[in-house]
């Protein structure tokens, strides 16, 4: 028997799951599974994945506080999800792993953008000082996607089919 869950409830659950996934790996510097889960959610549930990013960012703000980092999160995660939504038909997990890795590599550069308003040299210094961590972020995202991306994707597809979920 299929369980009927509203789009709003699913979005809330997915956003909360993103936060729980982030918190569960917080002890590992720049290793996260949020990027991969956003790919899985958005590929399989469409716009619900995008909306879940806003829930995730909101939960982060409520728990960690509002700051400049939060404004960047408010842009970065939904934009990444929108990108995934636009290219969601790609069915090659090596390509998805590369996309995950590139996102991790670019993350620090995107976070440096607001600092341009302080000074361009400060933004550049902020970005370049974090490049070693961006490389770790890139490698972590890539290898997580290679190791468990397809498994999670297939599991999500099976759940959607079994529960007869209609996507947005």
What does this structure look like?
The mean pLDDT is 94. The longest helix is centred in the C-terminal third of the chain and has 32 residues. The chain starts with 6 loop residues before the first helix and ends in a 6-residue tail after the last helix. Helices cover 77% and strands 0% of the residues. The chain contains seven helices and no strands. It is globular, with a radius of gyration of 16 Å. It has 168 residues and is mainly alpha-helical. Helix 1 runs antiparallel to helix 2, helix 1 packs across helix 3 and helix 5 crosses helix 6. It has one domain: Orthogonal Bundle (Arp2/3 complex 21 kDa subunit ARPC3).
What does the secondary structure layout of this molecule look like, with pairings?
Blueprint: H1 7-24, H2 34-45, H3 47-64, H4 68-86, H5 93-112, H6 120-129, H7 131-162
Helix pairs in contact: 1-2, 1-3, 2-3, 2-4, 2-7, 3-4, 4-5, 5-6, 5-7
Relevant terms:
168 residues, Arp2/3 complex 21 kDa subunit ARPC3, single chain, mainly alpha
Overall geometric form: globular
- List segments where confidence is low: pLDDT < 50 over at least 5 consecutive residues: none
| Helical proportion, percent range | over 70%
The description of the largest β-sheet is: none
Total beta-strand segments: 0
Q: In total, how many domains does the architecture comprise?
A: 1
Question: Over all CA atoms, what is the radius of gyration?
Answer: 16 Å
SS field, number of helical segments = 7
CATH class designation: Mainly Alpha
């Amino acid at each position: 028997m299929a369980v009927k869950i509203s789009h709003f409830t699913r979005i809330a659950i997915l956003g909360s799951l993103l936060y729980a996934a982030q918190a569960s790996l917080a002890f590992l510097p720049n290793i996260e599974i949020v990027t991969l889960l956003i790919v899985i959610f958005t590929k399989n549930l469409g716009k619900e994945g995008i909306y879940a990013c806003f829930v995730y960012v909101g939960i982060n703000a409520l728990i960690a506080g509002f700051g400049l980092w939060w404004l960047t999160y408010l842009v970065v995660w939904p934009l990444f999800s929108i990108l995934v939504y636009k290219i969601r038909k790609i069915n090659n997990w090596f390509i998805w792993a590369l996309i995950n890795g590139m996102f991790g590599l670019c993350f620090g550069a995107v976070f440096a953008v607001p600092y341009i308003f302080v000074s361009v040299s400060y933004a550049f210094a902020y970005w370049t000082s974090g490049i070693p961590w961006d490389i770790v972020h890139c490698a972590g995202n890539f290898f997580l996607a290679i190791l468990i991306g397809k498994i999670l994707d297939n599991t999500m597809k099976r759940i959607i089919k079994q529960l007869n979920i209609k996507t947005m």
